[in-house]
């Protein structure tokens, strides 16, 4: 039997919380071939989950994003009436409850009691770090961490893996491997900070956007246009560090030298003092040069432009299709 013929074990996910993100995770894991059990304490929510799962799968089918019939994927999702049933035999348990410490604390105590010893227990928390709702006195505290997704994760595949100081390295690495198996792109967050990476970046943009509206610089619609038709176009292809690395001949060090003082003045206007020190710039530049040696800069710029051309062509075609409708 060849390496390609070796079958992976069927993974099992327990989802605690049947709201929008719980449903989205159910779809994500089911798309990866996992067996999924969803629990929500509200009977109305439990009754709604199957139809919501199927509706999302039908939309994916309509856009040509499913490789198998929607009914086959939906068949891998079961709604159960207890946490014990959701966590039984699970490899990973994802808590998708509201952003309230007392609720998450109670759920993690129950999940730790009912889930098998090998299961990783994760929270979809957007802002709260694990150490806010899991205490080291919890027997299984070493297998608890945050796994915060983009929403919906079946379309935005990044998931932030945020261990607490007491989370074991084994649990962290198992979580990374499991989410990668599920088709997501895990990012390890090196320390617990409120909002992690996703929402801290989003928050920085939102804070400035609100200030620009407040100060009469631009309207809400114009700011959204700048993001949608400008920064959003670029950031859908490459991130902010690679953007400035490719925007300036000589790379990111050259950009920091030429543009850093202007960004520092803009920050000072908002009462921020976070200078791009030579040491910090050198640290960032070193990581960029590992990812892209300068002798490959021209070729990568060409790649970026072609990626944007593909995006522009898609948007033009979709615009024409919308007009035809």
TrEMBL record:
Q: What are the TM regions of this chain, as residue ranges? A: 12-34
SUPFAM superfamilies, A to Z: 6-phosphogluconate dehydrogenase C-terminal domain-like, NAD(P)-binding Rossmann-fold domains
The protein's matches in Pfam families, at most eight in alphabetical order, are given as:
3HCDH, 3HCDH_N
- Key words of the record: Membrane, Oxidoreductase, Transmembrane, Transmembrane helix
The GO terms this record gives for MF are: (3S)-3-hydroxyacyl-CoA dehydrogenase (NAD+) activity
What is the recorded name of this protein? 3-hydroxyacyl-CoA dehydrogenase
Entry's EC annotation: 1.1.1.35
- Name all 3-hydroxyacyl-CoA dehydrogenase C-terminal domain ranges: 195-262
Quote the PANTHER family the UniProt record gives. Answer: 3-HYDROXYACYL-COA DEHYDROGENASE FAMILY PROTEIN, LAMBDA-CRYSTALLIN HOMOLOG
Enzyme class, first EC level, given as a word: oxidoreductase
Question: What InterPro entries has UniProt attached to this entry?
Answer: 3-OHacyl-CoA_DH_CS (IPR006180), 3-OHacyl-CoA_DH_NAD-bd (IPR006176), 3HC_DH_C (IPR006108), 6-PGluconate_DH-like_C_sf (IPR008927), 6PGD_dom2 (IPR013328), NAD(P)-bd_dom_sf (IPR036291)
Look up the domain of life of the source.
Bacteria
Sequence similarity: Belongs to the 3-hydroxyacyl-CoA dehydrogenase family.
Q: Which organism is it from?
A: Paraburkholderia kirstenboschensis
Q: Residue limits of the 3-hydroxyacyl-CoA dehydrogenase NAD binding domain?
A: 13-192
């Amino acid at each position: 039997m060849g390496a390609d013929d070796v079958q992976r074990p069927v993974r099992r996910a327990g989802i605690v919380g049947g709201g929008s993100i719980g449903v989205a995770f159910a779809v994500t894991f089911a798309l990866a071939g996992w067996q999924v059990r969803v629990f929500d304490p509200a009977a109305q929510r439990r009754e709604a989950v199957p139809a919501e799962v199927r509706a999302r799968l039908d939309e994916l089918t309509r856009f040509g994003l499913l490789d198998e019939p929607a009914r086959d994927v939906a068949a891998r999702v079961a709604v159960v009436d207890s946490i014990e049933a959701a966590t039984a035999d699970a490899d990973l348990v994802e808590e998708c409850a509201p952003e309230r410490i007392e609720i998450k604390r109670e759920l993690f105590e129950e999940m730790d009691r009912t889930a098998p010893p090998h299961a990783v227990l994760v929270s979809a928390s957007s802002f709260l770090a694990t150490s806010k709702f899991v205490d080291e006195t919890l027997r299984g505290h070493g297998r608890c961490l945050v796994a915060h997704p983009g929403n919906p994760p079946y379309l935005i595949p990044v998931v932030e893996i945020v261990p607490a100081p007491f989370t074991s390295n084994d649990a962290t690495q198992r979580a990374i491997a499991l989410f990668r198996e599920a088709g997501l792109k895990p990012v390890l967050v090196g320390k617990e900070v409120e909002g992690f990476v996703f929402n801290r970046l989003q928050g920085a943009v939102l804070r400035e956007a609100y200030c620009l509206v407040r100060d009469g610089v631009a309207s809400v619609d114009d700011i959204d246009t700048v993001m949608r038709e400008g920064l959003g176009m670029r950031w859908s292809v490459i991130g902010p560090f690679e953007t400035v690395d490719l925007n300036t001949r000589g790379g990111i060090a050259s950009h920091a030298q030429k543009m850093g003082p202007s960004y520092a003045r803009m920050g000072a206007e908002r009462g921020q003092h976070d200078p791009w020190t030579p040491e910090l710039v050198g640290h960032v530049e070193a990581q960029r040069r590992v990812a892209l040696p300068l002798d490959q800069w021209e070729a990568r710029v060409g790649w970026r432009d072609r990626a944007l051309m593909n995006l522009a062509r898609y948007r033009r075609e979709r615009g024409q299709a919308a007009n035809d409708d």
